[in-house]
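Ligand: VIB. Inputs:
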Amino acid sequence: MSNWYEKINLKTAHILEQIKAHRFIQELMAGTLPKDIFYFYINQDAIYLSEYKKVLAQIGIKCYDENDTQFFLNAATGIINVENALHQNFLNQEIIKNEASITCELYISYLSRMAHTKSLEEGLAAVLPCFTIYQQIGDYILANQTNKNNNPYQDWINTYGGEAFANSVKSAIEITNKHTIKASHESINNMNKAFEKASKLEWMFWDSAYNKESWKI
Ligand SMILES: Cc1ncc(C[n+]2csc(CCO)c2C)c(N)n1
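Predicted complex:
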């Protein structure tokens, strides 16, 4: 019998396929993604990460098992190191924007609402695609790229394609699966919806970067 994650991963496979096929990912893999688009993405991602770490900390606080709390608080503080590395990179890059794009705002607001106003199970399901999709995209690129020695985005690719990251994703999946064992049918339904919505928001995040999304007014 398959577990909750296996089922929802299968049910949302079409979203992952569309992310893999997206021009952002295809061009990132080929190394041809325009630099301005990549920097737009990194800039928005820095804004996303600064909020996402607070969301993970909130999920950690809500956990009953102290190992689960430790996992999410570690993941949250781990993001601070990533953020600092991103900012180092930015110091000699063009202008840094402090304003979240529409999609970035939508995604972080959604996750924050899920973590603060919904059950722990729903919160876990909402934050999980951030882990699983990046791992699947990292692995997909590593398995299909032919330019590992001269791709300008290789550092980014290696961050999410490696084994260390895979272990962290495995723990996030196990913790979430564990919380589905005693969950009601309604709660599972809500978890499915949250996972699916966050997966769609992951697609939208790449797409909004590719189009350098701007506020309409
Ligand atoms: C929009 C967006 N979604 C997911 C990630 C990947 N990610 C960010 S924090 C974290 C967990 C701790 O490593 C993971 C997997 C990203 N960078 N940007």
